[in-house]
Amino acid sequence: MQLTEKHRQYWQKNLRITAVLLAIWFVVTYGVAFYARDLNFTFFGWPFSFWMAAQGALIVYVVIIWFYAHYMNKLDLEHGVAEEE
Question: Where are the domains of the chain?
């Protein structure tokens, strides 16, 4: 099956947003958690490293999932590949 230019654009946008969100996930999971020990301040009454590991990362993960679903729904509608409800 030959891919049209519209299909290529769809997959290019899909791969781009996936790469960006995976980069954010990586930074939150490894970057912030690793360097949080060096950030010696309290955040909402808890040490920042503890808060980031216990609450902050989970909040970011939920936001990433919500944003990806929202973005892909819009992209599906834009390219005419949305599922019928």
Answer: 29-80
